[in-house]
Amino acid sequence: MSGWITVRGSGKGTIYGRGHASPDNFRSSPQNRGSPVTNVEATRFGAPLPAGGTIGVMAPSGPYFNGSDIDRPLRWWRDRGYEVKLTDSVWAQDDYVAGPPEKRAEDLTALFTDPEVDVIQVLWGGTGAIEILPFLDYDAIAANPKALMGFSDITNLHIALRQSAGLATFHGPGFGSMGIPDRTSFTWDSAVAAFASGGAGEVPRDPDDPYVRTLVGGRATAPIVGGNLFTFVHLLGTPWDPIFDGAILMFEEVNEFPYVMEVQLHQLQLAGKLDRVVGIVVGELFECDWRKERADSPRTRSVEDVLERCLAPLGVPTLYKLPLGHGKHLASIPFGVQATLDADAQTLTIDQPGVHATS
Fold it and tell me: Which residues contact 84 (CB under 8 A, 6 or more apart)?
């Protein structure tokens, strides 16, 4: 890839720059292990999920609660002709995490190196994935790239695996979401298609509510990165300090107060993390607005007020409310690949697949 970034935004005019092609650009802090840190664009890709292939499952964050949390998605995949390989961490319970971080990291590394596993779908998010980052073998992961899918707390892995191993990953549902009543075929079909063909194409709108809003007009083509806003701020100052320079930044949030989101966005801005983004996609902000059930929250600004105050002054193309988050419908998209955000046309298009066929 040439690595060209193109931005046509109403606030910053037209910018053409080679923002991420040089290996000397946009490096994060050195890690305690693994190969040299990669750029914002992914350099390693897993192979597509074949028909009848094997999905490896581990729990990097929260534990299961009921046996049906495992049995239901296990049946969902097997009913469609796929195999599933579960690691020990899937069955581990230690309060709000799935066992010791060393064991969770060992299980994840083992799935990457296991020749029987085609793709990896984590159990789900919650909390605790940040604990396993120092224990992952990034050299082994880089040598055995595979597509990994998850979201929310899995943002820790999206960032660490791309910045330390160059890996393209998928922002999509965890294993525990497959077949559950709270999700629909929109989510499940998108996940399977992403694993099988890479998730390229225009990101679909929410089938129940196709409304999206342009906050700042313009068009940008660049690598797309991102995840959960809450998780971003907790990686600041760590060896996996997030790199958003030269990228389209996507973020989503769930059940967070607008004033807390505003503080988090101010923190990212003051840390310089938004200075060189070339576009912003705000996914679903699920149950984040004020409501009477949370009357202890100050009833002042709405989530859209916060977005207008914090993001519009950046002057880059900004689009809000695609189904990328904790709501009923979740579209799966790859991170670390080229995408085009057209805020005027209100579209986000993934230009490159997140999986590459091996010869």
Answer: 54, 55, 57, 74, 77, 78
Whole-number pLDDT of residue 280: 98
Cβ contact 26:272 at 8 Å? no
207 and 346 assigned to the same domain: yes
Do 181 and 214 sit in the same domain of this protein? Answer: no
Q: How far is CA 111 from the centre of its chain?
A: 19
Do 152 and 169 reside in the same domain of the chain? yes
**DSSP state string for 130-143:** HHHGGG--HHHHHH
Residue-level pLDDT at 299: 64
DSSP assignment of 50-72 equals PTT-EEEE--SSSPPSSTHHHHH
Question: ∠ at Cα 131 (328, 140), nearest 5°?
Answer: 95
pTM for the model: 0.89
pLDDT value of residue 289: 87
- Classify residue 274 by its DSSP letter: T
Q: Are 341 and 353 in contact (CB under 8 A)?
A: no
DSSP codes joined into one string, 194-263:
HHHH---EEPPPPSS----EEEE-EEEEEEEEEEEHHHHHHHTTSTT----TTSEEEEEEES--HHHHHH
Query: What is the model's pLDDT at position 297?
Result: 60
| Domain extent at residue 328 | 5-29+201-350
The structural domain count of the chain equals 2
Considering only residues 20 and 183, tell me which one the structure prediction assigns the higher pLDDT. 183
292: which residues sit within 8 A by CB, 6+ positions away? none
Mean pLDDT score, 227-240: 96
What are the tokens at 143? 């040598």
Class of residue 25 by CB neighbours under 10 A (exposed 0-12, middle 13-18, buried 19+): middle
Residue 117 confidence (pLDDT) above 80: yes
pLDDT at 189 over 80: yes
Structure-block tokens of residue 12:
């910053």
297-324 burial code (b ≥16 CB/10 A, e <16): eeeebebbebbbebbeebebbbbbbbbb
Query: Can you give the pLDDT at residue 298?
Result: 61
Average pLDDT over residues 253-277: 95
